[in-house]
């Protein structure tokens, strides 16, 4: 048993590779050679992990990936336990549908990271693409549990249709953030794009860097929401994210909506310390 | 055994199992956190009549609390888990929920056994309450008139120990009270320990039952009342004019032993004749705390009086 399994990319990738087999909990009982024989998909062609990555270590649920894996999709998808660390950028659908364990990406990730996840945590140290934490194509629910932390900015439809869980965005978010959320929390330290929390039923969108609140949200009050303080404190302590005290203990305007639904959702707009 | 000339009696304190919860109350500042904690721990000196025993464990800095605000840690003990759950709902609902700016969290996050007191209290929100899951724990947002009260859904239950004690026998009331105050101060802020009586000190030590009144659960410990020396089978030496007791509840034996060691050492001051402890011959509870064994590390040799 090794401390961790390392996957080192053998060379630059020209094509997209589907890597649903790279799941830490699946590696926990496998020898090095068995890990190398797990299948990957290069277009319609099946290859083995060992064809693409140099495998080091065995029988460990801690996995480290070295190399530029922006073209490798589905890393850690469906994982249930263990740790996965990507020492650079990662491709689309990383951690999609995961139920447990932790993923730490030192670079950026492509679209659909954490889509439909039910548990565990993903920490992206740079930026993320579209639909992070949202519903997979055709699904009625986005993430239903777990935590996604993005130090940088994200694309459109972040957290769309999420049912539960926490999505933290240290930078800005694109259009339709928290679209149709059923519950859960989305925190954006920067600005958000158009149509924030559009058609949300419940759930909480916190925006610290500027938001155009839709007319379908009604102003309630200015106050210091205790759950925002709790969530930001938790994020700061657990993930080592530097969150300014100005927003942790700040005052927020509370808007209730979306009026087109049951209207039990909220947008919390940071206004001052 | 003598410590600073004070005789340590060769006896033991007898304690019994209880169930304990640690409640973390935070507020906008330390003053309001303590206001809530004072109410939360009010009328909770003895399970005999108060149904629970509770006191502040220690003040917490913002770095120690879940929401990074000043807080107070409270320990609450009851005789069983069911009773503990009832007391949590009653007391948090009436004293912390009602106090401006407070939030309330569990202080035993690693305890396997949980009481969902927060879930029971959420209905005060009358349907307007909302929950948040943060770090795997569920919290309830209950709307109140100054904003929202944030309450953790479940509280951990620990197997605690109640009734640890030592008794200070002094020459007069002033020196005995001074020694008791020193003992309480030495124990204050120790982790896992509370002193549930006023100021940490009890003057009305009791015996089980009554020599005169049927049905009385407890009555005055006449053997330690100086005024009854000629009227009862007194346990007091002739030169003892005042007696005070320190009662301790703790999360485990280690915490109680450490607290007793610190408290007894602090109580061994001029004017104090002896330190003893209350027990019922080993019939009350399984936890025994021999004074001399506990004090062995700090004792100096001496002759018995």
Task: Tell me what the structure shows.
The complex is a heterodimer of chains A (273) and B (305). Chain A is mainly beta. Chain A contains five helices and 17 strands. A 13-stranded mixed sheet of chain A has the order 5-1-6-8-9-10-11-12-13-14-17-16-15. In chain A, strands 4-3-2-7 form a four-stranded mixed sheet. In chain A, a hairpin with a 7-residue loop joins strand 16 and strand 17. The relative contact order of chain A is 0.09. With 305 residues, chain B is an alpha+beta fold. Chain B has two domains: 148 residues, Alpha-Beta Plaits (2-Layer Sandwich), CATH 3.30.70.520; 140 residues, Alpha-Beta Plaits (2-Layer Sandwich). Chain B is built from seven helices and 18 strands. In chain B, strand 9 and strand 10 form a beta hairpin. In chain B, helix 1 packs across helix 3 and helix 5 runs antiparallel to helix 6. The C terminus of chain B is likely disordered.
Which shape of chain A, going by the Cα principal axes? elongated
Question: How many distinct domains of chain A?
Answer: 2
Largest sheet of chain A: 13 strands, mixed
Portion in helices of chain B: 10-25%
Structural class of chain A: mainly beta
Task: Give the CA-based shape of chain B.
Answer: elongated
- Total count of strands of chain A: 17
Task: Give the CATH topology of the largest domain in chain B.
Answer: Alpha-Beta Plaits
Q: How would you briefly describe this protein structure?
A:
The complex is a heterodimer of chains A (273) and B (305). Chain A is mainly beta.
List its salient traits.
heterodimer, A: 273 residues, mainly beta, 13-stranded mixed beta sheet, 29% strand, elongated, B: 305 residues, alpha+beta, Alpha-Beta Plaits, eleven-stranded mixed beta sheet, 7 helices, 33% strand, disordered C terminus
């Amino acid at each position: 048993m090794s401390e961790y399994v390392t996957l080192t990319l053998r060379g630059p990738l020209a094509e997209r590779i589907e890597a649903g087999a790279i799941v830490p909990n699946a590696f926990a009982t496998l020898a090095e050679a068995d890990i190398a024989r797990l299948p990957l998909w290069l277009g319609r062609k099946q290859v083995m992990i060992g064809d693409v990555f140099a495998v080091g270590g065995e029988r460990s649920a801690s996995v480290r990936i070295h190399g530029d894996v922006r073209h490798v999709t589905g890393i850690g998808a469906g994982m249930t336990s263990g740790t996965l660390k990507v020492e650079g950028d990662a491709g689309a659908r990383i951690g999609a549908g995961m139920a447990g364990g932790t993923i730490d990406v030192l670079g950026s990730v492509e679209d659909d990271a954490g889509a439909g996840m039910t548990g565990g945590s993903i920490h992206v140290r740079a930026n993320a693409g579209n639909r992070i934490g949202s519903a997979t194509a055709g699904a009625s629910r986005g993430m239903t549990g777990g935590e996604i932390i993005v130090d940088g900015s994200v694309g459109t439809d972040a957290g769309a249709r999420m049912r539960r869980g926490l999505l933290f965005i240290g930078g800005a978010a694109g259009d339709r953030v928290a679209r149709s959320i059923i519950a859960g929390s989305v925190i954006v330290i920067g600005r958000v794009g158009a149509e924030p929390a559009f058609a949300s039923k419940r759930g909480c969108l916190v925006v610290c860097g500027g938001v155009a609140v839709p007319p379908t949200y009604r102003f309630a009050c200015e106050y210091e929401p205790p759950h925002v303080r709790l969530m930001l404190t938790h994020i700061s302590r657990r993930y080592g994210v530097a969150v300014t005290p100005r927003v942790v203990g700040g005052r927020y305007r509370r808007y209730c909506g979306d009026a087109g639904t049951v209207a039990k959702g909220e947008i919390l707009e940071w206004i001052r310390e | 055994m003598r410590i600073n000339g004070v005789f340590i009696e060769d006896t033991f304190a007898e304690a019994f199992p209880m169930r304990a919860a640690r409640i973390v109350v935070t507020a906008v500042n330390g003053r309001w956190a303590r206001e809530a904690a004072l109410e939360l721990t009010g009328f909770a000196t003895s399970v005999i009549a108060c149904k629970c025993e509770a006191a502040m464990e220690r003040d917490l800095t913002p770095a120690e609390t879940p929401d990074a605000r000043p807080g107070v840690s409270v320990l609450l003990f009851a005789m069983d888990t069911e009773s503990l759950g009832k007391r949590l709902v009653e007391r948090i609902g009436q004293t912390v929920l009602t106090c401006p700016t407070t939030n309330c969290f569990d202080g035993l996050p690693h305890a396997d056994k949980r009481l969902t007191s927060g879930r029971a209290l959420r209905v005060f929100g009358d349907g307007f309450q909302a929950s948040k899951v943060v770090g795997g724990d569920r919290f309830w947002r209950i709307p109140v008139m100054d904003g929202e009260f944030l309450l953790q859904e479940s509280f951990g239950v620990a197997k605690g120990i109640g009734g640890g004690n030592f008794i200070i026998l002094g020459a007069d009331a002033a020196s005995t009270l001074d020694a008791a105050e020193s003992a309480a101060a030495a124990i204050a802020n120790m982790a896992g320990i509370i002193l549930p009586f006023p100021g940490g000190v009890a003057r009305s030590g009791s015996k089980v039952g009554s020599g005169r009144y049927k049905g009385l659960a407890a009555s005055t410990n006449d053997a330690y009342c100086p005024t009854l020396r000629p009227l009862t089978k007194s346990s007091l030496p002739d030169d003892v004019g005042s007696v005070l007791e320190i009662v301790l509840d703790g999360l485990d034996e280690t915490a109680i032993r450490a607290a007793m060691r610190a408290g007894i050492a602090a109580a061994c001051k001029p004017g104090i004749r002896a330190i003893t402890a209350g027990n019922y011959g080993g019939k009350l509870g399984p936890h025994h705390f021999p004074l001399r064994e506990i004090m062995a590390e700090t004792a100096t040799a001496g002759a018995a009086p």
